[in-house]
Each structure stands twice: as C-alpha cells, then as structure tokens.
Design brief:
The protein has 65 residues and is mainly α. It contains two helices and no strands. It has one domain.
Length: 65
C-alpha cells in the first residue's frame, strides 16, 4: 500500500507541476501583462518551484525505500 500511495503522490505532484507550467506559459504568451497578471505569473512560478521541490523529495524518498 505504501508503494501505491507514493506513486499516487508522484502522479499528483507531476500533474500539479504540469498544470502550473501550462498556466504560466499561457500567460507569458500574451504581448502585454497587466500588473495583476505579472503578480499572478510570479506567484504561479513560486508554486511551480514548490511543486518541483516536493516532486524531487518524493522521488528521493521512493528511491530510499
């Protein structure tokens, strides 16, 4: 059961990271961003980095077990 939970967690983190990446990409395609959109992009990038860090930590934990 632990292995299944780890795989589920990895899948969820990968999906979250991919979703955040897609949102950032969509916003950055615009020719002009409002100040609010610029803040949104910055926040999404922070969340994306957090998701990436969590993903790497989960992968390391999976390899250690």
């Amino acid at each position: 059961m632990i292995v299944v939970a780890m795989v589920d967690q990895l899948t969820e983190l990968e999906a979250r990271h991919r979703h955040l990446h897609d949102e950032v990409t969509q916003l950055e395609r615009r020719a002009f961003l409002t100040p609010e959109e610029q803040r949104q992009v910055a926040e999404l990038k922070k969340l994306k980095l957090i998701a990436k860090d969590q993903l790497y930590a989960a992968r390391r934990a999976e390899q250690a077990s």
